[in-house]
Amino acid sequence: MTRSMRRTQAARADASANAPSGGARGVPEATVARLPLYLRALTTLAEHGVSTVSSDQLAEAAGVTSAKLRKDLSYLGSYGTRGVGYGVDFLRHQISREIGLTQDWAVALVGIGHLGHALANYSGFASRGFRVAALVDTDPAQIGQEVAGLTVQPADKLEELIKRHGIAIGVIATPARAAQGVCDRLVAGGVTSILNFAPTVLQVPDGVDVRKVDMSIELQILAYHEQRKNGAPLALTPEQAATLAEAVRG
Amino acid sequence: MTRSMRRTQAARADASANAPSGGARGVPEATVARLPLYLRALTTLAEHGVSTVSSDQLAEAAGVTSAKLRKDLSYLGSYGTRGVGYGVDFLRHQISREIGLTQDWAVALVGIGHLGHALANYSGFASRGFRVAALVDTDPAQIGQEVAGLTVQPADKLEELIKRHGIAIGVIATPARAAQGVCDRLVAGGVTSILNFAPTVLQVPDGVDVRKVDMSIELQILAYHEQRKNGAPLALTPEQAATLAEAVRG
DNA sequence: GTGACTTTGTGCATGCGTTCACAAGTAACC
DNA sequence: GGTTACTTGTGAACGCATGCACAAAGTCAC
């Protein structure tokens, strides 16, 4: 059978799109965000000696519906066998390649506080092809310290470290007030992908991707739903009533 | 086989299904996820002495478009003044109330490893109404230790701690293999919102919200885009070509 | 080879989220 | 009062993501 034409419409016609970091790509962004989930589920299955898996089984392991899983995988190609399922090792390799995990990614970690320490020692990075190649901090007390087998470097060495190690991804784990400065330095050094743990919005030029991880925001989202599950959703406390009255009055 | 009651992690909050008193107050999930962002921007503005802000200014500070911001805020009510903008303090209070930050949330933190330490010492929780009320671990070496002013408790005290402190939110910072067990215990104790840092999919009954924070997944998403920015997007390695040929032939 | 059975891949419909564009409302000034 | 300038709030259009349902394509037994 011939490889059916994928809609090539969005292949290269994205020039006019002003999406700074949006992926005007064949694979939808929502799908990209789930591929790592599938990959993890497949790895677990492989470790248990499973060699073939159906979309139902894999979907359950990854916590999605089977229809969604099949549609997601269909964007990568026809890697399954009808009537049988997907080959675990084969599919794992295809997804790894699609994400870009067949190569090694050198990462710079800036901000060696509590969180920085935790990240530097996190084994989940190395096992997926991410190698922390540089630890950087501005605090003189931290510089020179040995953390997770690396020596903490001063911030003014950032550009040099980025070039020396071929670092394309930077991780910011500094306090919020330092984040933008660090970000600027990373970008100046040539980093085009940033993972930001600091609770602040980063300004970056076009072509640089930023993803953020903010535990405080996640907790607040949970609190919103929690509030509506438990308490009296529409009851007003005296304080709220006063506020409302004030607002109406102007 | 029938569909089991299993439900995998997916924040769901359909208010319209059984709204008790005809609320029609459904705030879209995407909007809820941005409210904390607005809140943070407003707090920063307030600290700088700003008392009034336009949707354009606030949107820039929060990193969204002004149209999106206005639509988001319109779900909460008409809290702005046409021709003028929004009152910073007033809007701040309204959003806080909507999210549920006017009350204090007691949180249980399970897993006191590197990450657990970092979370226990994170000041961003306390400043937003989240109070870490219990630290729990299974490691005998950790139990009894003093961390961030609290004593680490054994896991079998979890239910008691939840009830004593009125804990509704649990944070899981254990290794992946321990996460589901901890999750089950939290749910059994009455927790209905869980923030999961462990790289695994949690199974929870209906009515329990799970949100996950997975740094490895975020890095992989960055890697995907990075791969397409830099390298040759369409070049095939010999290995890939062989795979493709096999697929076409097969 | 044939038929029964299994599972993928996908066209279509639906719903959610974002963007656009402008009417409605407010302030300031003459 | 009337006019001008400004900003919110929102209806409508659009695009992306999800769920459904089934034809296509494979395996297996005989």
Question: Care to describe what's here?
Answer:
The structure is a homodimer of 250-residue chains. The first copy, chain A, is an alpha/beta fold. The first copy, chain A, is 44% helix and 16% strand. In chain A, the strands form 2 sheets. In chain A, strands 6-7-5-4-8-9-10 form a 7-stranded mixed β-sheet, with helices on both faces. Mean pLDDT of chain A is 86; it is low at 1-25 and 232-250. The interface between A and B is large, with 80 and 82 residues. Chain A binds a DNA duplex (30 and 30 nucleotides) through residues 28-31, 54-56, 65, 67-68, 70-71, 73-74, 78, 80-86.
Structure summarized in a few sentences:
With 250 residues, chain A is of the alpha/beta class. Helix content of chain A is 44%, strand content 16%.
Topology:
The structure is a homodimer of 250-residue chains.
Chain A: H1 29-47, E1 52-53, H2 55-62, H3 66-76, E2 80-81, E3 85-87, H4 88-99, E4 105-110, H5 114-120, H6 123-126, E5 130-137, E6 146-147, E7 150-154, H7 158-165, E8 169-172, H8 176-189, E9 193-196, E10 209-212, H9 215-229, H10 238-249
Parallel strand pairs in A: 4-5, 4-8, 5-7, 8-9, 9-10
Antiparallel strand pairs in A: 1-3, 2-3, 6-7
Helix pairs in contact in A: 1-2, 1-3, 1-4, 2-3, 7-8
Chain A binds a DNA duplex (30 and 30 nucleotides) through residues 28-31, 54-56, 65, 67-68, 70-71, 73-74, 78, 80-86.
